[in-house]
Write a sequence for this structure.
């Protein structure tokens, strides 16, 4: 850790080679996770010429779960984007906290497929909520590490501000797990509410503010 | 938005980190969308030693639909290429308009597989036309945003010029949807005409002109 | 084309944004083509505890075809590497000649799977030879275009030198197509000889020479 | 090889175009290898509403094998990261030693799927150990080449230090192959011990030390 002061300051953050490769690897994983979910979604052959409302419902559920998962993965990608950007260095702990986050992200297609095929199953909804909750927690671990190793006071403050906003999200996903076994529709509500809230004007405004702060400081560092 | 003037001018467009990651993520999604369609195309085992004209026809239809979809995705990728290049900054709206465009692009393999398996189905042709129309519209939303946030008068003029050319394309795909239920061959014609026109000398000449304008100004900015 | 002189000289080749995105998109396509072939290769479940020599043979044929196709795609990737590096600009013709080459590359998994499943089928060997021949031809079209638009006399000479070496390769793959229907083993020989020759000392020495020439001039340009 | 002195010194290592493309291609292959393993893991439909302990066990074995393989591939990716970073040039030998390493990496999903489906099969455990052993050996060949062509004495010393640590790892995987046929649980132990050891404090400390040395010298070179 003693070399941090010297090497961390020399190159602008966004050009440091190790960060660049973490970005490249992570971007590819995010892109593939988003896209392989599509491999599972087939328009039922019955619908080509005939009518089959059961097949249509099945297809609709798969498509809706895909759209939800696309938005969830895209939100995580956006967070990752700003998080890696502020990392002062790509040490071994960063690498493995990032790998841990990616491992949970790659489980999303598995639970998305299960939930898409069984949208009324309490277990499917609970499994989906559990995996997204673990994604959120693993991103928080990465962010906490970033806050700890950063020497930029401004970045640290931003990380702590975002970290405080994480707990309500974790609580909603945690609540979805037992709720799924009481009433699966309540679990679905929990799964939908956070991606939907992300687009609310008030949340967007705060996000915009944080992002513009990141950008300003990030450029000032370089 | 107040930080746009300062931060947007400092680095040449193509080196700004956030644009770079949007590019990387989008390129990966485009590449995977193009390639996973191949997973669905199998040469029928019957054709290894015996003759089976039905199997050959099925395979031919899948292959033709793949080639068409490859060209469609590649045209969108080319447009994306020039569009991102002129984006002054990668704000949250840009991110999500881009995610929206990518979401529609990832639906192309689903409808391509359905149309390839059922080339005479009116619904399959209509579904394909609908998804490509939505891709076109979602790219236009991204471009309109780029035109709005750009401070470069030249880029704005180019965006508006391209935006005007979008409506005939949207109209052709929109027309294909009802036409499919009257005569599926007319819908196919609509699906084929635009990718084919893209290679006509007159369209190519205009495209070349626009691209060389982009390049010239893009470099001048940097 | 009039802007070529000015813009082509300003930035070192390897930093020009449009070339960079062609590289990124192509690299992703090459990487996915190589990797999705693996999705088709399953170790037969029968082999977990019992013996089944038929299943073992089938698996062996799939694995051998995969290894061959990996080497073929990797050779094309290596050529693409040096080709894009010398492109003075990424104009629309370059983009579409590149897309054409990628389209043929994405067909390799389809014929590899067919040949792996039916290694004694004349049609499978002929289809494989046909697709690899078309890949070679489409790369030559791209290279001829590069030779034409390049202003660097040295690059032009190198391109012409490589182009002359293409014809024997095309001839071998073309010969494999009729040979497959006479004796499938001769077609296999044609398919194996070129990737094998690539590693012969004499061919490697010439390749090394050409590459070091590219590198030297490429750096001198930048 | 005569041009090495001149061209290898001119640009900082991490900006040399040919290294960059090897990185990009390799990162994409690593990312796809990690992610396509997920395509094989399905939560059994029986578990949506009913209980089926056999299906649950099967799913658990697949998931555990996936997690193990994710860690194995991520360790190789991390090593690759530091290895490519120190390569003085991307010559043809580097390219093909890298391709060889990637070929073995792409076989991991095949044996992971087989081991996940048959966790008690001696052959499956032996096949898995064999492939990971070959990955380790192929990375050592690449590293030995890097040590040979490097002009940086410091990098050479580091490479030799890491190369000495490779043999115990190869020995453990080699031992797992015969052990699998005596007692499959011992083979599993061999497969688990190395990824687990990677996270032991003492190993982590040494790894950290080596990495910080790489970083320091790498930056000093640029």
């Amino acid at each position: 850790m003693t070399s941090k002061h010297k090497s961390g300051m020399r190159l602008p953050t966004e050009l440091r080679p190790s960060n660049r490769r973490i970005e490249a690897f992570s971007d590819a994983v995010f892109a593939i996770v988003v896209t392989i979910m599509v491999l599972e979604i087939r328009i039922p052959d019955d619908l080509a010429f005939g009518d089959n409302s059961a097949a249509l419902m099945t297809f609709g559920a798969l498509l809706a779960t895909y759209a939800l998962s696309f938005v969830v993965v895209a939100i995580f990608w956006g967070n990752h984007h700003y998080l890696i950007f502020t990392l002062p260095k790509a040490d071994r702990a960063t690498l493995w906290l990032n790998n841990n986050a990616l491992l949970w992200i790659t489980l999303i297609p598995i639970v998305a497929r299960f939930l898409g095929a069984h949208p009324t199953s309490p277990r499917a909804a609970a499994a989906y909520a559990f995996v997204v909750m673990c994604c959120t927690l693993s991103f928080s671990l990465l962010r906490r590490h970033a806050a700890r190793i950063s020497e930029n006071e401004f970045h640290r403050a931003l990380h702590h501000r975002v970290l405080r906003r994480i707990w309500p999200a974790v609580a909603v996903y945690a609540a979805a797990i037992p709720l799924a076994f009481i009433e699966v529709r309540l679990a679905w509500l929990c799964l939908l509410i956070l991606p939907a809230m992300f687009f609310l004007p008030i949340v967007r405004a705060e996000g915009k503010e944080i992002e513009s702060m990141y950008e300003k400081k990030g450029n000032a560092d370089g």
